[in-house]
Every structure is written in structure tokens, then in C-alpha cells.
Batch of 2 targets.
Target 1
Amino acid sequence: MKYCFGVDIGGTTVKLGLFSEAGAIVEKWEIVTRTENEGAAILPDVAEAINGKLEQHGIEKEQVLGIGVGVPAPVTVDGIVNGSANLGWKYKNAKKELEELTGLTAEFGNDANVAALGEMWKGGGVGYRNMIMVTLGTGVGGGIIINGKILTGENGAGGEIGHMCVNLEETDTCGCGGHGCLEQYASATGISRLARKKMEHETRATILTKEDLSAKAVFDAVKEGDEVAIEVATEMGNYLGHAMADMAAVLDPAVFVIGGGVSKAGEVLLSFIEKPFMEKAFFANKNVKFKLATLGNDAGICGAAKLVLED
Amino acid sequence: MKYCFGVDIGGTTVKLGLFSEAGAIVEKWEIVTRTENEGAAILPDVAEAINGKLEQHGIEKEQVLGIGVGVPAPVTVDGIVNGSANLGWKYKNAKKELEELTGLTAEFGNDANVAALGEMWKGGGVGYRNMIMVTLGTGVGGGIIINGKILTGENGAGGEIGHMCVNLEETDTCGCGGHGCLEQYASATGISRLARKKMEHETRATILTKEDLSAKAVFDAVKEGDEVAIEVATEMGNYLGHAMADMAAVLDPAVFVIGGGVSKAGEVLLSFIEKPFMEKAFFANKNVKFKLATLGNDAGICGAAKLVLED
């Protein structure tokens, strides 16, 4: 029997999974991410957790195909991270360090890209080989899968779709320093921002309140038929759907998978995205499918495990 | 000694090249594209040309690594063409047909994608593995190379960057039926259109004349310092540069290679593109390089040959 590990390193916790060669989750658990001291303890902590788990289950290192790891930063194909704000890392040869600490093969990827791979393998993208995952969380992340493999890009920054410019007139500044980034409209914080702007001058009756203009509150109100909330969702969906039409013209995917906290709104979210997408999509791309992500927090460890499993 | 063929099928002529295994062009020639009768003669004509060339040079079929072919249509990874307006083809299993006609292995690709591969191999993209080729001709085509390979896409429509929507306010219709496509501003015909619109209400002195508002006339005037022409080039460059910033956010390329008839304007063209690109590019993409294509009409046969040569 052979095994592998999938590891999803976040700014607060590290999620780990022990997988069978066939892809079943044998066990999953978490450890704390120790970001102090430039995150020097993170990879040693991961190595200790993995070594401990092998001992606990009586698994020999020869039985382990490798360790796949997702990290919140651009990562090159060689496993080099050129700094991660969330982890405190500066330049780090993460692959080399973890391989030396464990004596096992390690493959690294960007967390959004790795989660996309997980959704293709076991989630919303099952059955497809050309997929764009759009993650609507605090920010907007993306993961592009071409012919079953992650599109890493030259600097490990492939799929940074949250920083496509969708509004040349924007005066507010994005976290990246740019103006008019998709993230400013389609992330959870972006949706709140659109709702807040609308509520400043709103005179119609609405169940939205200035105390709670979260993305969840907006989509809950949409489900109640609230006109003001529907206008906010329409504005968000227009920016996102049009940007997705541009992504499709470039990449010609078979499927979009929508994940992240905002996607908990469910199918209603897709309706606000598909209409503007279809209005602007190139004819060759109009048969693309729209799916919700299904793996939730497990997408990261699944995709990480898939990094070291053969097709 | 081993050989391969690179074939570039256009709507008027088929360009053919005989290449050595090492990649040198041994001979190149053209035949007429017979598009009548749904283009039924095109592949038989190609097969005859190849068989004749082998006989002429005394090359055995065992010495031929294969035939690479670029066609003006989307092509799947399996060599299926689902119709080509320029060739008169309906559905065609082009790979199977040419292999049966020649007894040789054939690989097919979209002509813009194949030209991009050629430019990476021997032209403006030499030394790079992640490249976006932008072809500014009658239309705007694109070819995306990821890790040295063509991004084909699910329907063979990868890299259709000319149909990214760059202006939601546009009322004129693109050839594809859409509105505000990049092609409407950055192709040779798009540049003429921008110039014509500007000249309608222009009162300043300009060396541009309503009789010749071709892209070449515009860039010739730009080189003379003509204020009106510079404004047309600036408008075109803004649309293109901003769209390229969005492509870069998605794909994280190392280099853009600009080809097609409009690129004959030379380095001055790049200056109009790079400035708006830098204004809108995500920080991780600001080190991307801008190059002019160098192969001209040979890009197609070179890229086609590269389809059947190993890395």
C-alpha cells in the first residue's frame, strides 16, 4: 500500500491530509501556523507532523509517493517562493527545505491553483480537463487547469484573475495598488463595498441594513426578492461575468467552477454571472459550463495530494 | 538524415517547408489553395506536393518524422476541424485524412497558435517558454505558449484574444457579432476605423488624408510627429495595452511577441502599447518583455514543423 500527503498552509492553520494512492482521504488534521520569526518554524512543523503521522500508522517512507503543498503566495515550478505576506516568508526554496526535513519528495503550488486542481479531481470540475476556478473570498483568486495541469506561469502568478482591470474609471485603490481590479467588485469585501455605496443614497425600502452589508446579507436579501440587493448582485455579476467572458476568449475552458465563501449563496449566484457572460462571450465559448465548488475547505489538501499523484 | 514538413494552409495559398530534423529550412515553396467544392482538394493537393518533394529529393518515408499543419480555424488536440470559412471546410478529421493520404504522421493546429510556436522557436520569442503572441493583421489573432506548448483550449479556440471585450459602450458590430471586441480597435481595419472616426470631426492640420487612413498611413504619420495620428495610435495602444494587462494577470507570461502587418510599424508601435500596459498591469507581471515578431510569413511553416519535432 502506497500513500501521499496533501498540505494546505494558510496564515492561521496548516491543514494536512494523509491520502491513499487511490486518492481516498485516510485521515485529516490541522496544526497552528507559526508565522513569527519570518515563519521559520512552518516547514519544520509540517515535517514533524508528517513524520509523526507515519510513525503513528506504521508507514515506511518507501511507501510515501510524496508531499504536495499549497501556499498563499506565487510559487515557481521549481518550488521557489519569493515572499509570502501571510506566512512571513521572504525568499525560500520551499521544495528543497521540506525535502531535506522529511527525506520525501515535495511539490509546491500556489494555494488557489492547488484548490482548483482539487476541485477538478474530486469536486465541481470532475470530468473536465480545461477549467477555470474562480474563488470569491476576502479577495478574488483564480486557478487555471489546462489539460489537467495547473497553469503556473512564469513567476508563479498564473491565474491572478482578481487583478484584471474591469473598470478604468475606478478611483478607490485595490489592495494591490491598482484601480478597478475585479477583486474590488466580486470579492466578499467588494460586494460589501458596492452595497455600502448604494446604501449611501438609497431611498427605497430594503431589508438591507447599514449594520450588516456583508456579501451573505446581500445574497440573503436577494433570495427574499429585495430590489436594492438584486441591483448590488447585478452590478457584481456584470463585472464578474464580463471578466469571465474575457478569460474564456483567452483560455477556451470547458467549465468555470465558482468557490470561496461568497459561493455559499448557491445557484442564485450563478444566475447573476451567466447572463452577462453570455452577453459578451465569443461564440466558441458559449457552451462553457458553470458549476459551484463542492469540496469547501478540503479543496486545498485534495489538490495538494493530486500534485504528487499520477493522472 | 531525418526530415519533417511544416505546412501553413491559408485561404489563397498553402505555404510548405521541408525541414531537417535539426530545424533548418531545406526548401520552401507554395501551392494554390483550391477552396471550391468545400475545399475537398486541399489536403490531397498538400499530400501530392509532399509526396512529389520526397521523390524529388530521394527521401524515404521512414526518414520523415511527420507533417505539421496550421489551418485558419479552431482545431482540437485530436486534429478535428469543425468548419473553416476561409477553406470551405465543414467538419473534417483533418489529421486522419492527411495521414491516410501520405502514410505519414500529421499534427494539426490553429494557424495563429502555430505561428506563435514558430516565433518562440526561431523568432521574437526565442529563449522563452511562456509567451503570448499578438497578431495585428486584418483581425487580431493570438497564440498562447505555456511551458513551450500551444494552449489549444477545449474547442481549439484558445488564444482568441481579438474577441476580448474592451469597450462595453461600443455600438458598432464586430465580425463575430459582438460589440467592443479588441479587434475593432487594434487590427489594421480597427486602426483605420479609429482614424476615420477622428477625421470626421478633425479641424487641426494633419498629414493624414481621408483617401488613405490605413494603419500604415497612421503609423507613418506618427513617425512624422503628426498630432492627430499620435492620438489615434494612443487610443489603439490604450485598448490593446489594457487588454494585454488582463491577459498577463490570467497567464503570467514571460514575453509578448507582436506580429502581423501592423507590427511592420516597428518599435514605435511597442511604445504605444507598453505605457498603458504598465499602468494597469498587476505588479507580478511588470517585468514582462515586449518583442516584435521576426519571422514574417515563415512563422507558420516553422511553427507547423515544430509541432512534429521534439523539444
Note: The radius of gyration of chain A is 20 Å.
Target 2
Amino acid sequence: MASPEIETLTQALSRLPGLGPRSARRAVLHLLKKRESALDPLLRALEAVSERLATCSICGNVDTSDPCAVCADPRRDTRQLCVVEEVADLWALERSRLFPGKFHVLGGKLSALDGVRPEDLAIDSLVTRIAAGGVDEVVLAMNATLEGQTTAHYIAERLEGYPVRLTQLAHGLPVGGELDYLDEGTLAQALRARRPVA
Amino acid sequence: MASPEIETLTQALSRLPGLGPRSARRAVLHLLKKRESALDPLLRALEAVSERLATCSICGNVDTSDPCAVCADPRRDTRQLCVVEEVADLWALERSRLFPGKFHVLGGKLSALDGVRPEDLAIDSLVTRIAAGGVDEVVLAMNATLEGQTTAHYIAERLEGYPVRLTQLAHGLPVGGELDYLDEGTLAQALRARRPVA
């Protein structure tokens, strides 16, 4: 029924994560009805990003400049390097504003099932960055999944012999977590890593 | 952290219905990582729609042409006219492909609370269409809400004296509906409108 242009827009939107055909249609209707306040701003924002989109040649972050804003920031502590699986993880850590150092994005995790091998990830470039010196600590901030931890172990092996301290994120109870609802794996980790009461 | 361009895009997306800040961020990451398959197609689709977007001067539908595809379709039965509150309702009926006639979009419903008066809706233009003749039946396809039904009553009054048959959508059990879970209003309507078993 809708014109081919509107159909195409609905399909493009419905392929975004979190939007299905139904919500894409609602979004399109919203865009069509609010041309000045919704459609045009979205169009201009997409144009601006599309024009400048770049993958950072140092860390693998996606940004509108290369090097990215994090790598180009002179206030960052270059002695600390945080290794993450995906750009989304880098963004999540940046939102917390807790890590003062720089990042390295692997672009995925080792996975026998999905056929992801070490050479498919940005591991060689990580080793090159470490070999160049100047980094004291490497934080392996992989996801707390089997594949994430396998990836962390592999990277730890590859970085053996380099004068860097390897650390990983603590495992345990999430803030607000109730024992009754936690899985046994998390409980076991929290118990094993228990600390003296200050 | 993210560049201003990416921030602006995230905000533009998060204002779409069904997307919050979190899902907008996920969508932006998806767009940035899949430039060829996601960002560029969405950009081109928005451009195409933005260039041609028009509100149909006959029925009030939004489309990429004026008159819209429904009004311009010569196979449509011009003797049947379906009046709906919103463009979304027109699209919902079109998806079912059950109504062979034409449409009229009011652009809302009468509401004392929200201060929506008859002159705020496309009611005068509806009367003009009916007065021009050629329409046998007007289907008042308002929502089954208090305001929708008030709007339907008002339109029925305005169309008194014109030689058209006024009808409304049937009320009753939705397909797959279980009595136990239905509200009393729907049950009452279904009982009142009961029909002999064929």
C-alpha cells in the first residue's frame, strides 16, 4: 500500500537491532508526521556521521575522526591499556568515566563454534602496541563468558615476556544483586574472591 | 565520549517511538559498524522519502505523492469511504487489504481533555466530500475508545440529511480472545450483538 520509498525506509529501519517490522512502521509514521522535528534532524545527523565515519587506526574504535577522540586526547594515561571485545564495550566503559587510560578493540572474541581465530581479531596489533613500550598495565576487560575468558587467556599467553602487568575485571555480585537470584557461577566467584571487611 | 555527530544521531534516533537512549545507542553502533549494509541504505531511504513526502490533499494520508496512492488508484470503489482517526489506522486497514473503498483521515479525535475541537479535525473537508456526492456508504472506523466513539457520534450528526449509509466496525471478541481475559465492556458488546448460529 505505502509507496516504494516508504516501504524501503520501513525495511531499513526494521533491520536495526531492537526494532521489528511493527515498531519500524510506527517509527516511520512518526517521521512522516513530524517532518521538521524528527525526519529532517535524523537525516542531517546520518549525513554528518556518514561523511566523517572512520575506524580508529590505533585502537579500532569507530568515531568521526581517525585517530578517535580517546586516542587523540592528550590527558589520557598512556601507561594503562584496556582491551575490550567490541566497540560497544569501549563505549560502556567510557560512559562510566572510570578508566583514565587508552583502549584496544579486538573486534570480537575467539570462538571455535563461529570459526573466529586469533588472526581474525586485532591481537597482532595489540602485541605490536605493547612491544612498542610505554604501557605498564593491560586490563583484559573481556565479557565474563566462556569465549570472553578464553580470549583473555589467549591474549595473556601472547603477552608473556613483555614487561606489563596483566589485570582483569573483578567478578562477583553486581551492585543491587540479591544472592537468591544469582547464578551459581557468580556466587562461586564472589565467594572465592571474598575480601576482609574493612 | 562519542563525537558530537554521533551524539546527535543517537539523540535523533532515541526520539523515535519504541527506542530509548539505550536501544538508540545499540542502533547507532550497528549503523557505524555496518556502513554499507545499514547506514547508507537508511540514509538513502530517508533522503528519498524526505524529497517527496506529501500529505494527500484529498484524504489526509501521508505518502510520497499527492494525491496518495490510494486516492490515485482507479480500481478503488469510490462509493465506499472509510473515516479513520490517524494515518496509522489507514495503514492498518490497508495491510488487511479488506476494504475496497477510499479513506478519510481526521488527524485525531475529539477530546475535551486535550482541547481538540471539531474544527481541529478534518471534519469540514469530510462533509464537503460527502456533499459532492458519489459516496453511498461511510464507515466510521474510529477506535473503540470513549473519545473515538464520541467523534463517531459527532460525525454521524454532521452527516445527517446526506443520502449516505453510515456504518461502524463491529465490536466483540477479538480473534483468539478468551472470555476469561476480556474486559466487561467487550463482553457486554459481544453479548448484545450476538448472532444466530449459522
Note: The mean pLDDT of chain B is 90.
